[in-house]
Amino acid sequence: MKIAITSDLHLDPKYTIKEMITEEEVRSTYPDDFPDTDFEHGEPANNLRRWLVLEEILENCKKSRTEHLIIAGDLLDKRSLCIGLDDLFGRYKEITVHIIPGNHDDFLSKKYFSSSLSNVIIYEQPAVTAIAGKLFVFIPYRENASAAQELLKIKPQIPVDKEWVLISHSELAAEEYSLSSEERKIYFPLTKRDLAALNPNLVVLGHIHQPPKQPIYGKVFYPGSPCACNRNETGIRSYITIDLDVPLGKENIEYNELNRGLVYYTQDIFVFPLQDEGKFVENQLEIILWGIIYDLVQSAKGTVFSEQIEALMRRRVYLTLNVKGVSFEGKDCLGKLVNKYIGDKVLYPVLDTREVDVSEDAQIPLITQELYNNIMETFCSSERFHGYKEKPRYLLGEKDSDKILLK
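Predicted structure:
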């Protein structure tokens, strides 16, 4: 049996799926049917996508017969009625939804949901719940407190011989912290020392939107926001599942990628005053686009065909390009080049040229081109790659690269 965990949806019930259907800019409730031009990237549009992602998670749970979904805080972005959630959760009554309040929705309680909605549990106080023979300890966010302080209130309820998972909406802190510090506020802190004293088998926390690629301290996981809230939350979004049929450990944590919502990418590209400056930039843009295509295809797990990729990128990809270096042709030419090459391939391209210097010296491209050619001949000559030409470049590892450079 598996259990699903997500957090930080930051829904605004003012913009539910049901209400957004009537908006002129929305042609359908599903991203696959959005017009290629899409609509304005305002809060109504962003919230619609978040609702669709929550629906996708519930639908995935239904298909995989996952009977429990945990939302580790910040389901809602602000205080509001939950009429839309009654309708959505009510369509998946076979799934028990466990919700803890976060720092954005610390007001959340059962009274915000319909009394007839029996499959939703709100943990307003610390609680211990058994699911499929494993204990889950729910610690809701509390203002001006720490997660460890709240957990100690119910620590006696946790048998020492039982496996258990800590669920909270917390921020990992340094070993020493002060709740009254004037420095940047740490929300509901939890430290390595706290974890060593409490000794949970696994920890899954809400609050951090961009999840670390590796577990922290070998046992702490952040599912991250399943639908990006801003351009800093980059890459394909996902939610967590835990296999409860085996002993609890990091090995049975799985990230499940999602196929709705915007996908933000931030990439650096470099410009040099070469004789063919544009071609040098185009080559980098091509590599970036192929990387995004690979991500989307992998996320779709074979359900997307090649002819659908272009439309998918125009509907979902928000690409920020940070340009760095020196240009002879100028920032306007760079903008026109990027717009021509990539403007109609993604939903929303953003070009940042603040770190580009412009040179007006006509000799610079000649000098730079000669230097560039010498570098390419020195480091990328056929002799250096002798013995590797039958091996695809994407299979060359770090040791291969070291050997090539040492030549």
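Summary: The CA atoms of residues 323 and 354 lie 8 Å apart.
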